[in-house]
Amino acid sequence: MCALCREGLRGFDDAHCFGAYGGTLRSLIHLFKYGGVKPLAGHLARLLRDAIPADRRFDAVVPIPLYWWKHWERGFNQSELLAREIGRHRGIPTVNAMRRLRATSTQAGLSRSARRRNVAGAFAVKNRHAVAGKRILLVDDVMTTGATASAGGAALKAAGALSVTLLTVARVDRRIAWTPASGADFLRAT
Known about the structure:
The protein has eight helices and six strands. By secondary structure, it is α/β, with parallel strands linked by helices. The protein has a single domain (8-175), classed as Rossmann fold, CATH 3.40.50.2020. The strands form two sheets. The protein has a four-stranded parallel sheet, sandwiched between helices. It has a two-stranded antiparallel ribbon with strand order 3-4. Helix 7 links the parallel strand 5 and strand 6. The N and C termini lie far apart (32 Å). The model is unreliable at 1-8 and 176-190 (pLDDT under 50).
């Protein structure tokens, strides 16, 4: 059993990320997501492409949706911009297959169990035919506990998705103490 499954995350089958959420990578994600620097989508998507195993095949790329109000407030969905870049590069259709049914509290500062409760039942699939029997690449910017992706993946699987693979730019690992220099080191290597 995989470590994520032992933690109760059963909405996705596999997870890949580019790097750890810290240093320069964290700063880039914040500029993109909260600063509205949308051109960073191309750069971050190039990092994402390196995280996808070359031999894996997918039928559709699906972004984690924002609640309509958050989308309106921010002006864009960062996950959708990343998903579109990945889809274009891999020749896979990007499908806005899900919608967020309700506003959820920000996940920052919530415990693992509170995060799961916060997003439980928050997603629904808009069109079952878009995902039924397909291998889905689910895209988000950051994975902390995996609760959001697990809830989204569970909705996709309930609609008949064959498999769900999560792809994020970064993953939070609370076991690692990050300094600004450590984040810059792995970005220089790309």
